[in-house]
Amino acid sequence: MMFKLLYIDPGTGSMLFSIIIGIAGVLIFVGHALIIKLKFLLLGGRAANSNSKRIPICIFSEGKRYWNVFKPVLDEFEKRGKDVRFFTAGSDDPALSAGYRHVNAEFIGEGNKAISKMNLINADLILSTTPSLDVFQWKRSKSASYYVHIPHMPNDITTYKMFGLDFYDAVLVSGKYQEEQIRRLEKIRSIPAKEIVLTGIPYLDKMKERLDGLSKSDGSNKEKTILLAPSWGNNGILTAYGASFIESLIKTSYKIIIRPHPQSFTSEKELIDRLMARFPESDKLKWNRDPDNFNVLNEADILISDFSGVLFDFSLVFNKPVIYTEPSNDWSQYDCAWDTEELWTYQILPKIGRKLTQENFGNIGSLIEDCISGSDASELAKGRDLAREQTWCNMGHGAEKVVDYLISKHNELSEKAAKASDDAKKTANRRKSRNSLFA
């Protein structure tokens, strides 16, 4: 009974945490203001510089899983010799050991500890992939001026949980359709228009640059390879189709590589252990757990996956066909539930690949052959060209565009702050002069 009385459900816990953080923030800012006033009096009326520790540009990452998003941007800052702060919630984030000279990387704690620090940050500009700013625990700091969002996938910007981007000041996008999605939501919700900047996809640029740097071969003697790269959870291929689908792949003439989502080895350990025991590695089949997926994507001739961003990495960069499962997501809690238009992903998938169903996976060999070199190959190649045109602007220059924007926006914010300070001084001087006339 005592444990039942002490139990707090996750939703209530989140609300209580937000209240505690809010109270703590108020107390800290009140204390900070009192300290400044005290310093002012002790210094004989000479104002202390409260902005001496203000961060010009700060980047916040939830951890190493977003390293591919931020690395090209950090490399560009380093290349330009421009100082930037990088805060991460991952103690194993590669940025911490990258050896940068101009990127000051710092681990600020995991989970709520990191969010608590970000809630009180003193900065001009913050860039992050993290959605739901000012919705859940992560609040806008009263000492921060401008928040910029950078996506981590080249597809629909409305597949975040509801209100995911509403309280950002700016969003960096890679396709015009993403801007249109945001504008529709703003109109429906009657919220102020954000600044939207077409920058591109820095991590895909780097992946393509890496691919272009490899020696070319005609591949005529290479064994044709299928990459099965499912997501985890109830909608994942391994959960939905399981052993019977792997058996269908083995019956084909292709080499098979299975690369489960990293989370599967934790959340679906029993399933993965059972499948790996039933289908051990051989000349025909390999299991892949490489931290970097580049080599396995490059090796494959076709990718089979579900509703995952890897479909676009594979299609857009490596220019190869995909087979995908029917998306069965419940979008009722997501931003796209408010949108009046069909998701771009749903529109483009049939143009870059073919849908896998329970009815056709028994004939998977023919479906694969049609996609690679058969009747569908030419049509799918045109679809990939269309997808790149619609969702990958500024190809090869994404990181440059992102850093150009961040530096330009910071300069703009600095000029506005300087003007506001100058206007305040002029107003104070006028009041002082007026008061002296009546002294």
Kindly describe this structure.
This protein is α/β, with parallel strands linked by helices. Strand 1, helix 3 (67-80) and strand 2 form a beta-alpha-beta unit. Helices cover 46% and strands 14% of the residues. The strands form 2 sheets. It has a 7-stranded parallel β-sheet with strand order 3-2-1-4-5-6-7. Strands 10-9-8-11-12-13 form a 6-stranded parallel β-sheet, sandwiched between helices. Helix 3 packs across helix 16 (398-437). Mean pLDDT is 87; it is low at 1-7 and 39-50. It folds into 2 domains: 51-201 and 395-411, Glycogen Phosphorylase B (Rossmann fold, 3-Layer(aba) Sandwich); 206-391, 3-Layer(aba) Sandwich (Rossmann fold), CATH 3.40.50.2000. It contains 16 helices and 13 strands. The radius of gyration is 26 Å and the shape is elongated.
What does this entry show, briefly?
The chain is of the alpha/beta class and 439 residues long. The chain has helices spanning 2-6, 10-42, 67-80, 111-118, 176-189, 202-212, 237-240, 242-250, 264-267, 269-278, 294-299, 310-318, 344-352, 364-372, 377-391, 398-437, and strands at residues 55-61, 84-88, 103-107, 123-128, 144-149, 170-173, 195-198, 225-228, 255-258, 285-287, 302-305, 322-325, 353-356. It has two domains: 51-201 and 395-411, 3-Layer(aba) Sandwich (Rossmann fold), CATH 3.40.50; 206-391, Rossmann fold (3-Layer(aba) Sandwich).
